[in-house]
Amino acid sequence: MTYKGFSTKAIHIGQEPDPLTGAVTVPLYQTSTYAQEEIGKHKGFEYARTQNPTRFAWEKNLAALEQGIAAFAFGSGMATLDTVMRLLSSGDHVVAARDMYGGTFRLFDKVLRRYGVSFTYVDMSDASEVVRALQPNTKMIYAESPTNPMMMLTDLSALAEIARQEDILLTVDNTFMSPYLQQPLALGAHIVLHSATKYLGGHSDLVSGIAATNREDIAEQLKFLQNATGAVPGPFECWLLLRSVKTLALRMDRHCSNAMQVAQFCEGHSAVQAIHYPGLASHPQHELAKKQMRNFGGMISIELGSMEKALAFSRAVRIFTLAESLGGVESLVCHPASMTHGSVPPETRAELGITDGLIRLSCGIEDVEDMLADVEQALGSL
């Protein structure tokens, strides 16, 4: 049977009742190896780094949600990215988003550059900058949309056309949106990846990552790399993700609704000097957001003006917890300059607008009245 609805796919694809017992939840195959009938004869499972039924179920599910043909799970979002970048070789060039997660920049600049892969960082809100940055050895365009933490958007369809014309790969980090809110493969990307720790997991109780593709040749390479490098997740993390994805649409709707109300409140507050949220009509790319996203997400960044005010705000909040990460059911507050983007050079942070007074909010699914009261009293303390 072909399923049309997102939530129907999330609940049923890869999550069919167990044929042996009828269990409606995918079993947790907590094993490292499998008995073989005789030399060269087995049931399709040899060793758990290579094959695990629980992981296979999760990968099948996410591939369907991202409209891909295959997905590959890893031990973390960074392990996912590192494996995807192994599609490249020494001497290859990548055009990457200038404003992106600090850990991504750290991997590119401090690790991969040592192995002969070069990077040019551009403002991907302007597709013409991507074109100008292309070189004869460019093999990949790497994008985040929205970006972390400045919430700038990239026209993914425009990037996909550039990638098609130049015969290069387009890879998109879709962590902030989840496949429920945005599907880069459907917009022309070749690879989409997630830190599954965030919205896909949704409960701040696991660390994992996953990548999906719509090309057979890329799927074959990623399958080989996943086994060869071995950065796979354990079956328990995959089991938790299969649990979590069933409520992804419900959670994302609430994240978006809460974030919109918090953003609207902050936009009108005198203590907030600037706000970055694509759901607001004042956002410079609001129309693009409406075009390529189902809704506007749960992430907001606000400028408070100084480190002292950022400290005061983070100390004053009670429902928003000061912590790394994002995308959980609980609301979190983060100080990008000292936390997620501490590895980015100060001069680069300044160019991007990641100031000492910038605060990033991950709006959870609590009652919005309590969230608004918390933000109001914290802003009032400045």
Protein architecture, described:
- 37% of the residues lie in helices and 14% in strands.
- α1 (6-12) packs antiparallel against α2 and α10 (248-267) packs parallel to α14 (368-380).
- It has a seven-stranded mixed sheet with strand order 1-7-6-5-4-2-3, sandwiched between helices. The chain has a five-stranded mixed sheet with strand order 8-9-12-11-10.
- The protein is globular and about 75 Å long.
- It folds into two domains: 6-245, Aspartate Aminotransferase, domain 2; 249-380, Aspartate Aminotransferase, domain 1.
- The longest helix is centred in the C-terminal third of the chain and has 20 residues, at 248-267.
- The protein has 14 helices and twelve strands.
- The protein has helices at residues 6-12, 53-65, 77-85, 102-111, 127-133, 156-166, 178-181, 216-229, 235-245, 248-267, 286-292, 307-316, 346-352, 368-380, and strands spanning 70-74, 93-97, 118-122, 138-144, 169-173, 191-195, 209-213, 274-276, 299-303, 321-322, 332-334, 358-362.
- The protein is α/β, with parallel strands linked by helices and 382 residues long.
- The mean pLDDT is 96.
Helix % is: 25-40%
Name the average pLDDT.
96
pLDDT < 50 runs, ≥5 residues: none
Order of helices and strands: HHEHEHEHEHEHEEHHHEHEHEEHEH
| Number of domains as seen in the coordinates | 2
Looking at the structure, the CATH topology of the largest domain is Aspartate Aminotransferase, domain 2
Q: Which class best fits the helix and strand makeup?
A: alpha/beta
Record field, number of beta strands: 12
End-to-end separation = 57 Å
Q: Which architecture of the largest domain would the CATH scheme give at its second level?
A: 3-Layer(aba) Sandwich
Largest sheet: 7 strands, mixed
Strand content: 5-15%
